[in-house]
Design goal:
This protein is α+β, with helices and mostly antiparallel strands. It has helices spanning 24-27, 84-96, 114-122, and strands at residues 2-8, 18-22, 31-35, 41-45, 57-60, 66-71, 74-80, 102-103, 108-110, 126-132. A hairpin with a 5-residue loop joins strand 3 (31-35) and strand 4 (41-45). The two termini are 33 Å apart.
Length: 150
């Protein structure tokens, strides 16, 4: 079994042996066992609290295998608004509910939830169900290893 124990700088342009597509929930787990699409068993054994991001590089404990992490497309709700103030208001209401949220200048993205979808539509926002990569914010006190510019 391939055990991934070290996170490397994602800024390095390097050839990788394998790409692992993981959902947002899977990228937030530091200890996890999964199988690749080819059926190879892989174990994440990273420092507790590690949150992986699209493009991150992991190295096997043996040092001979490099793996790139990819954000796996998954069901999400994408929220858009006519104005930035409406989008900020939506982020405020979702934050009050401690919802994992991807925040950009043009849209918000969250895991599907019919109650939250109804609330957002009631606020006059455009909500669409999609299959897309989901990269929620880590949080103000979260630690995700090497710093990432977002």
């Amino acid at each position: 079994m391939l055990t991934l124990t070290h996170r490397l700088s994602a800024d390095v342009a390097i050839a990788v042996d394998l790409t692992l597509a993981l959902t947002a929930e899977e990228r937030a787990r530091s200890r996890y066992q999964l199988a690749t699409e080819a059926g190879q068993s892989v174990r994440l054994q990273l420092p507790r609290g590690t949150v992986l991001h699209h493009g991150d590089l992991l190295q096997a404990e043996t040092g001979d295998v490099l793996v790139r992490i990819a954000a796996k497309p998954e069901p999400v709700l994408t929220v858009k608004a006519q104005t930035s103030l409406e989008l900020l208001r939506a982020a405020y209401h979702l934050g009050n509910r401690h919802v994992a949220l991807e925040i950009t200048a043009d849209y918000l993205r969250l895991s599907p939830d019919p109650v939250l979808q109804s609330m957002l539509e009631h606020l006059g926002l455009q909500v669409s169900a999609e299959i897309a990569a989901f990269q929620p914010e880590v949080g103000a006190y979260g630690h995700s290893g090497p710093s990432h510019a977002h």
